[in-house]
Write a structure and sequence with these properties.
It contains three helices and ten strands, in the order E-H-H-E-H-E-E-E-E-E-E-E-E. With about 210 residues, it is of the alpha+beta class.
Length: about 210
Amino acid sequence: MSTISLFPTRIYLAPLKSRGLGRLNRDLADECAALRLADVAGQRWSARHYPGGYTSYGSHDKLHRVSSLFAGLEKAIAPHARAYARALGYDLRGRALCMTDCWVNMMAGPVTHGLHLHPLSFISGTYYVQVPRGAAAIKFEDPRLDRMMAAPPKRDDIAARERLHYSVAPRVGHLVLFESWLRHEVPPSFTRTERISISFNYALREKAKAGG
């Protein structure tokens, strides 16, 4: 008898770059704090949808297009996104990966980020700017879970890759990339210091043809 493993779900983990992360993260943390103070619309949106925390998702979700600092972050993320797309086996000939959205998340105490996915995107991810001790992990859900109508519980001794949920602990200066259809959430941390992350989406665009 033999078994085969099919349809893998791959999550990409890597430091953003080898040098200069301390200065970059300090500058990003300062810009995130300034944005929150000035972003009245985002404060209102967060009060309704992100109680206790702040996100610019509902007000400023294209920060890479309006801030030179975030544009630099986009430039640093781009090679990781391309490497991840290649590892997934996608044919990118004639196509370009483009960051379409980029926004800030600031969480402390019991703030949560409910289970969700990122529609109309190809690759999504998060970069961690500030991670206090005890900050919550990002938790991924098996995409087949809603189809396991008659399945019994999983054993406690199985490998992590066989479980129905998988958590990735945040690390300062590190990226997590995943395919946009993969549902995920962030449970409460109950930390006093804020967990600061920058989330983003990528889509595919057709490259312009020469001539014509």
